[in-house]
Amino acid sequence: MFIIFIYYFLSIATLLACYYFRRSRFTEKDYKYNKPLKWTRRILIIWMYLFAALHYSVCFRKNYFRDVENDFIIGSALFFLFAYIFAIGWLENITYPFDKKKK
């Protein structure tokens, strides 16, 4: 039961971190010159890819969560998989709005 709690907690916390990072209103200078911010974004993207792989594993492979015979876990893993695909695309597209500025 504790493993399932940790699974959901980390899944939701990672999505909230992505949302916070996207909506923080960093400027173009922040992305160009702030190296810790760049590395935080890169680490978050890598973390999200790892969790997307974990959700894929829960959905489509035989593992601990499949043995529980609980369809709610599989359904929520499928939901999180689609949410992570959307969030990764959202987070990787973070610097492109600065390219569309009028001169």
% residues in beta strands: under 5%
Gross morphology is: elongated
Residue-averaged pLDDT: 78
N-to-C CA distance: 56 Å
- Low-pLDDT regions: none
Please report the total strand number as a whole number: 0
Keywords: Membrane, Transmembrane, Transmembrane helix
Describe it for me?
The protein is an all-alpha fold. It has a domain of 61 residues. It is elongated.
SSE blueprint:
Layout (H helix, E strand, L loop, with lengths): L1 H21 L5 H6 L1 H26 L3 H4 L3 H22 L11
Helix pairs in contact: 1-3, 1-5, 3-5
Structure characteristics:
103 residues, mainly alpha, 5 helices, membrane
Question: Quick summary of this structure?
Answer:
The chain is mostly helical. The protein has five helices and no strands.
